[in-house]
Amino acid sequence: MFNHVMLGSNDLERSRQFYDRVLAILGCTTGPSLSTTNSGHHRLFYRHEGQTLGISQPINDQPATAGNGSTVAFRCDSPEQVRAFHDTAIAHGGHSIEDPPGPRTLGPHSYFLAYVRDPDGNKLCAIHRLPNEPTAE
């Protein structure tokens, strides 16, 4: 459904340092490619398993701001990976938000989640879907 997700940054080097470490937790071991738009603005692109995350200087020359109500969620393989994502994000300039990493139930589904904001304020979620327990009848 999606080709890529693009987030704005006011400091691409700070973002590179943050995302290099956080995305490595998810197995993204190749560093970002740098591209320059026709207008001279710079962007970082992280590619992993057919997915792309872009980090860009805003091309309208206004400050990058976090989207109110926006979240980018990263699929994790285990609760331990969710915790590692969260802890690595915090150690590299991110901020923990909402509840501490842990299980959540949303309707009939269970998840292990952590929410952080990157150094520019973009809201990120690390999510692992927990197996649904059979219901007793």
From TrEMBL:
InterPro entries for this protein: Glyas_Bleomycin-R_OHBP_Dase (IPR029068), Glyas_Fos-R_dOase_dom (IPR004360), VOC_core (IPR037523)
Record keywords: Dioxygenase, Lyase, Oxidoreductase
Domain VOC: 1-129
Keyword tRNA processing (UniProt): no
Keyword Lyase part of the UniProt annotation: yes
Annotated SUPFAM superfamilies: Glyoxalase/Bleomycin resistance protein/Dihydroxybiphenyl dioxygenase
Any one GO molecular-function label of the UniProt entry: dioxygenase activity
PANTHER family (alphabetical): BLL2941 PROTEIN, GLYOXALASE FAMILY PROTEIN (AFU_ORTHOLOGUE AFUA_5G14830)
Protein name per Swiss-Prot or TrEMBL: Catechol 2,3-dioxygenase-like lactoylglutathione lyase family enzyme
Protein source organism: Sinimarinibacterium flocculans
Lineage: Bacteria, Pseudomonadati, Pseudomonadota, Gammaproteobacteria, Nevskiales
